[in-house]
Amino acid sequence: xxxxxxxxxxxxxxxxxxxxxxxxxxxxxxxxxxxxxxxxxxxxxxxxxxxxxxxxxxxxxxxxxxxxxxxxxxxxxxxxxxxxxxxxxxxxxxxxxxxxxxxxxxxxxxxxxxxxxxxxxxxxxxxxxxxxxxxxxxxxxxxxxxxxxxxxxxxxxxxxxxxxxxxxxxxxxxxxxxxxxxxxxxxxxxxxxxxxxxxxxxxxxxxxxxxxxxxxxxxxxxxxxxxxxxxxxxxxxxxxxxxxxxxxxxxx
Amino acid sequence: xxxxxxxxxxxxxxxxxxxxxxxxxxxxxxxxxxxxxxxxxxxxxxxxxxxxxxxxxxxxxxxxxxxxxxxxxxxxxxxxxxxxxxxxxxxxxxxxxxxxxxxxxxxxxxxxxxxxxxxxxxxxxxxxxxxxxxxxxxxxxxxxxxxxxxxxxxxxxxxxxxxxxxxxxxxxxxxxxxxxxxxxxxxxxxxxxxxxxxxxxxxxxxxxxxxxxxxxx
Lengths: 252, 217
Description:
The complex is a heterodimer of chains A (252) and B (217).
Chain A: H1 10-14, H2 29-51, H3 58-78, H4 87-102, H5 118-139, H6 141-149, H7 159-206, H8 212-248
Helix pairs in contact in A: 2-3, 2-4, 3-4, 4-8, 5-6, 5-7, 5-8, 7-8
Chain B: H1 2-18, H2 29-42, H3 60-193, H4 198-216
Helix pairs in contact in B: 3-4
């Protein structure tokens, strides 16, 4: 028995045709998901703020839990109290990424906005600008570069090599890795789900019973992707806080 | 308000569903097949016809919309959504702190009152003991007093009785002496009248004595 399994090229799984407008303002499915993520995040916090009950319930409770988590679980762990200035930014980043990710498993949408490079790239750029600005403002341009490239305690012999590696790593690799980590994880998850969905569909058409195993795996992977969505949003937020916190530190 | 949110969400979902019937195509099959035909005709490599886009480069339109979405979202959240939530959380924190302080104050107050009551209770107990002791002593004193008075009365009674007895005795003795004197005189008269012999005298005296003895008893 042969299976006529036709797997679409990568571009067919992540690139979507334009729905309206054109050129740089062209709107496709990914853009609609971005909008939904933005609107969803805003409505979530807005409703929580409107409730304003002293004893929080429902959406207010959830929103406060998120803010509390960013406050205590992320900022105080990495930057201390002087990092609280970044709480609104980090909360927005976390929620926007999380909602963008979670559309990966929302039925009929099933596409994570962050499986496209646009948002990870933009956010990493913002993070790049943020932590370098913080570092330069704190130490001055030369002091900041010095704190990165020539930390105390490095043997003289390896100083030039270390300086080069530290410079490239801290200045360029960090934001790049930050963006690629999010993008690649979400793309991989999306491809995994698509693969198993296509496989399950093909096997179901061919044998029915044969679809049981990949079908069960598909369900399990969907659950796993929920975890990945939350985890990647958390990692991005956490690393952003870590980078800004490191730049704020007086000594490396 | 909630209904509006649901309607807005539904509309957005509808746009996504209707506007997106399936996977999109970057390369239309017809263009690819034409290219392949051309390549075959001209003897070129057909691989160049299906050019996979580099997934790591962001698409311009998605970058523009992603940036706009984030920036607008960030502005709206910071301007309208975060402050009330933050304010409410701070209010709650203050309220809880206030309540805890108040609770602590009330507790220490209650403890002070309890200590006061306990002290008062101990005082009352001491007072009660003192009163009981005092009563006991008074009763004791009263009893001793009464006993003493009774004893004195008894002694007085006895003394009076004894005096009475003694008086009666003396009276009786005096009476006896008087009557003995009379009798002796009477007897002496009889003896003188009758010059009796010794036996007669003795019989007279004994008879007299027995008469007097029976008269005394």
